[in-house]
Automatic annotation (TrEMBL):
Domain Cytochrome c assembly protein: 97-307
Transmembrane segment boundaries: 12-37, 49-69, 89-118, 130-153, 187-209, 221-241, 261-278, 285-304, 324-342, 363-387, 407-425, 437-456, 462-480, 500-518, 619-639
A GO term for molecular function: heme binding
Taxonomic lineage: Bacteria, Bacillati, Actinomycetota, Acidimicrobiia, Acidimicrobiales
Ranges of Acidic residues composition bias in the record: 657-670
This protein's name: Cytochrome c-type biogenesis protein CcmF
Pfam families membership: CcmF_C, Cytochrom_C_asm
Start and end residues of each stretch annotated as Disordered: 646-680
Similarity annotation: Belongs to the CcmF/CycK/Ccl1/NrfE/CcsA family.
Gene Ontology CC terms: plasma membrane
Domain Cytochrome c-type biogenesis protein CcmF C-terminal, chain residue ranges per copy: 326-638
Cell inner membrane as UniProt keyword: yes
Location of the protein in the cell: Cell inner membrane
């Protein structure tokens, strides 16, 4: 009887929460929009109430789902799909986002959190139409996801009768094999959903006609936070892939991986191009288009991930949400483009570019490259779907397509990262460039010499290392100049924090170049008690043992790698009957030794021989160190920096107030136009 009451309670509580989200979102959108149109200030001041109700409903539903998973409430279809008595606690929590319905619930929770955060941040400004319309857009987005969660992806739908005492299958085995599954999806969702806020302000700016630079200032940190979370989420996904999937790589150009990369590319372009609009009043339509594209691509990515139209280790099973997401994607694109066309006369940029050899010229080139990259990735991702729809046949766009086209793009971006930070606004002289690029260029030469000394060869890798050193030198130059002028505050602010982000990107780029160019692999047949040498490392089989618990049987090959024991395994999850390889990685600052048991057949416990697939992968750890550096730089960039007042001469000291004026490279040259710096 107690169990039956609990079953009824979880489902009813979850439905009540979702109903609250749906009702508050719908009423909030209609009432706030009506209040704006009629000038009803009392109605506008009620806007935060709807946001808090949405958050309350999402929290109630999430708590209900976590409770249902905790008590193994098999009356719910979702728990029947992913629940199991044998799932460890941390993976039981993560089971919520291991399948379609729960992942949509997580999306609703994150979206509700951003909506409430917006309501709190702008709590004193709801008389402002721009803020009001932005809240309306957020409410509309909440309404859509609440409809999906309440309809085709209902996590609280009742399941068929479940025999008493029967256990469920548990989450996908790949999602209960590493702690990163607890962090990767939520952080990625923070990035995806976070771009809803700048998108909402962009639409509000178009509706109100206030398409100047004001809304950009309101959303700068929101966009930066979303971009940072998306960056870390993608890197954590690569780390999870490396540690779990057993193929020895971090990125396979899988369609679902590409779906997360697309909004990151357009979001990165926006983070740079928005500076041009703030400083020169240029690229208004372009920035709006980038934000709209970024948000639309998050919806498209959700469709690709959750509709079941693509085959991927990351994709969920086929659902009934494809029509909903495609329809919403179409609405977003059509309405946004319609608003841009409507406001076309107000979107003419007041500024013009004086010279392509300038900061704004570099940012424009940066945007073109990122946009081309996004188009290449999008084309390669959706091309198989287009072929299947038109010709009823299946095809695959493989990694060689993406690798071949991404190499020159990566080289061009590294070059821009080296040159752009030293360029002033408006235009640069040859003498100025020679002076500012002197030490960065020597850093590039030094990087090539070090690479050659370490045994590197091949044209493209050496170009990559050289440009990495060149770009790293330019970033370090900026940081050194800023810290000499401002002390520790030379590390904060948009420009200085951005340089630290650049250093993280360069670390990642160099690590990718090294691992792609110099990874080696082999099959080793190890015999117990006999040491084998390969690629400068020693390997010795100690024993093959079975480790069994109620959840899984694991056959572990304990191997000494350079005298340290490692344990690659093949694990069979009993409830699902599925076996997966579990790699073991010996990590150092210069090289990873990556071990997996070769084949899909596990050796017998007590076997005296085992065949291993071994990879030697250089500099992999710098991918993760670079990711940490990017996260730190993003946080520092969110803090206000300091710079001279625009009307002061270059020789003036840095003011001590906290005005949010960041230090650009042209401070040292004095070439900036004070009126432009002031944002006029």
């Amino acid at each position: 009887m107690t169990t039956m009451l609990a079953v009824s309670f979880n489902g009813a509580l979850g439905h009540a929460g979702l109903l609250l989200v749906l009702g508050a979102s719908l009423v909030g959108a209609l009432s706030t929009g009506f209040a704006i149109r009629t000038g009803n200030r009392v109605g506008l001041r009620q806007t935060p109430v709807y946001a808090w109700l949405i958050l309350a409903g999402a929290l109630v539903s999430t708590v209900a789902m976590q409770r249902a998973l905790e008590v193994r409430d098999f009356s719910l279809a979702f728990v029947q799909q992913v629940g199991s008595y044998n799932t460890p606690g941390i993976y039981n929590v993560a089971a919520m986002w291991s399948a379609l319905e729960g992942s949509i619930l997580l999306w609703v929770l994150v979206l509700a959190g951003f909506t409430a955060a917006m309501a709190w941040r702008f709590r004193d400004r709801f008389d402002d139409e721009l803020v009001g319309w932005a809240m309306v857009v957020m409410f509309v987005i909440c309404t859509f996801f609440a409809i999906v969660a309440f309809g085709p992806a209902n996590p609280f739908a009742a399941g068929p009768p479940w025999p008493v005492g029967q256990d469920g299958p548990g989450p996908n085995p790949l999602l209960q094999d590493h702690i990163l599954v607890l962090f990767h999806p939520p952080i990625l969702y923070l990035g995806y959903v976070g771009f809803s806020v700048p998108f909402a302000f962009a639409i509000a700016a178009l509706i109100t006609g206030r398409v100047g630079e004001g809304w950009l200032m309101e959303t700068r940190r929101w966009a930066l936070f979303a971009w940072g979370c998306l960056t870390i989420g993608i890197l954590l996904g690569g780390w999870w892939s490396y540690e779990v999937l057993g193929w020895g790589g971090v990125w396979a150009w899988d369609p679902v991986e590409n779906a997360s990369l697309l909004p990151w590319l357009t979001g990165t372009a926006y983070i740079h191009s928005v500076l041009v609009q703030q400083r020169r009043g240029m690229l208004r339509v372009w920035n709006l288009s980038l934000l709209i594209a970024t948000f639309a691509l998050t919806i498209l990515g959700t469709f690709l991930t959750r509709s079941g139209v693509i085959n991927s280790v990351h994709a969920f099973a086929a659902g009934q949400v494809d029509g909903y997401f495609l329809g919403f994607f179409a609405v977003v694109v059509v309405v946004s483009l319609g608003l841009i066309a409507w406001r076309g006369d107000r979107l003419r940029a007041p500024g013009v570019m004086d010279s392509p050899v300038s900061r704004e010229g570099a940012f424009l080139a940066n945007n073109v490259i990122f946009s081309v990259f996004a188009f290449i990735v999008l084309l390669g991702t959706v091309f198989p779907l287009i072929v299947e729809a038109l010709q009823d046949r299946r095809t695959v766009v493989g990694a060689p397509y993406f690798d071949r086209l991404s190499i020159p793009i990566g080289i061009a971006l590294l070059f821009l990262m080296a040159v752009a930070p030293v360029l002033p606004w408006r235009k640069a002289s040859g003498e100025l460039l020679r002076e500012r690029l002197f030490w960065p260029a020597w850093c590039g030469v030094g990087a090539i010499v070090v690479a050659l000394a370490a045994g590197a060869d091949g044209l493209w890798p050496l170009i990559g290392f050289g440009l990495g050193g060149f770009a790293g030198g330019a970033a370090m130059r900026q940081i050194v100049l800023a810290t000499r002028r401002q002390g520790w505050r030379g590390l904060v602010g948009r420009a200085n924090g951005g340089m630290i982000v650049h250093l993280g990107v360069i670390m990642i780029a160099v690590a990718i170049v090294a691992s792609n160019a110099y990874t080696s692999s082999t099959d080793l047949l190890l015999t117990q008690g006999e040491e084998v040498e390969w690629n400068g490392h020693t390997f010795e089989l100690v024993e093959v043992v079975a480790e069994t618990d109620a959840r899984a049987d694991a056959i572990v090959a304990n191997v000494l790698v350079d005298g340290v024991e490692r344990g690659p395994a093949i694990t069979t999850y009993l409830n699902m009957g599925q076996s997966i390889g579990t790699p073991s990685v010996a990590t150092s600052l210069t090289n990873d030794v990556y071990l997996t048991i070769a084949g899909t057949q596990a050796p017998q416990p007590g076997a005296t021989e085992v065949r291993l697939e071994v990879f030697s992968k250089p500099l992999i750890i710098w991918l993760w160190i670079g990711g940490v550096m990017m996260a730190v730089g993003t946080i520092l960039a969110a803090f206000p920096g300091r710079r001279r007042r625009p009307i002061d001469p270059v020789s003036s000291p840095i003011p001590t107030d906290d005005a949010e004026l960041d230090a650009p490279a042209d401070d040292e040259s004095g070439q900036s136009d004070p009126k432009e710096v002031a944002g006029v």
